[in-house]
Amino acid sequence: MSEAILKTIVYFDIFNTPLTKEEIYRWAWKCPAQKYIEFLQKLNELVEKNVLNQKYGYYFLPEREEIIDTRQRAIPIVEEKIMIAKRACKKIRWVPFVEAVFVCNTVAGGGVKKTSDIDVFIIIKDGRLWLSRFLTTLVLSIYGLRRNKKNIANKICLSFYTSDKNLDLSTIKVNDDDVYLIYWIDNLIPIYDPKNIRKQIRRKNQWIKKFIPNALQNYKTLYRWRVDSSKTSSAFRYFFEKVWGGNYGNLIEKQAKEMQKAKMKLNLMSNQNKGNLGVIITDSMLKFHENDRRKNFQEQWINKYAKTYQGN
Fold first, then answer.
1. Where are the extended beta strands (E) located within 22-86?
2. Domains: count for the chain
3. Residues near 227 by Cβ (< 8 Å), separated by ≥ 6?
4. Does the pLDDT value for residue 93 go beyond 80?
5. Between 20 and 30 A from 79 (CA), which of 118, 197, 265, 271?
6. Does 157 reside within a domain?
7. Residue 173 pLDDT exceeds 90
8. Domain end position, chosen among 64, 85, 109
9. Nearest partner of 32 among 68, 69, 4, 64, judged by Cα
10. CA-CA distance, 293 to 255, in Å (whole number)?
């Protein structure tokens, strides 16, 4: 139990994020099955032995008290960015075949800064990935909400799409215990999710329970963060999904794919042809993480834990 607690604390310390006792229990790494009261007893023992420090309800590594202020300062930043994501979702909820939009990465999992962009994970109906990506990109570009090379802070980063038939994310693990991906999945914040796709994601990714067995199964987005379908958006979606649902839609999908792939080929600096799991371009997943740092975070975590708790 001590190892589970300490590995969890060390991992989130990489992102300058102290944790509450509830968060430690939820995210305890490979935590052996124990009652919550036994977990609290072990947590208090670690504090009493000065292996961990505790203040204002947060737990953190010794001599890392300053990250409490870091986390507190991040609260209004997260709120601001979620509101921007909410505004973006209202603009694209009419886009046909968009099933769900999740906020992810730093905004959802820790380490967010004022200068950060807003990463989203978008689920598209199978067979219409390219068409919906084109429309989503177009709409958010028109409204000035999409990130580009010159405007990053508080802009929406459209870097990860997958189809609703491709929700098992174990296929993109960089190793068996891809710690960043595991916490990433658990921390997804559904901003627009009228069909409860998050529940399907949880069901398709039960493999993460091996690593974080206490992870939440049910999650409700704060009402002020949630975007629901409107009558107007639902009418638009229904019309275009009917029109583009058959053979004509297949033709439009093919054209959208050819146009976008032609543009992608012009990016000579991309990792798209190097077999890198950061960049994936298929008809069921579009992932554009040119600087995929998951292996780096894994190494930081392992090394920091070994250095901090060697001999304990």
1. 53-55, 58-60
2. 2
3. 86, 89, 90, 93, 101, 191, 192
4. yes
5. 197
6. yes
7. yes
8. 64
9. 4
10. 33
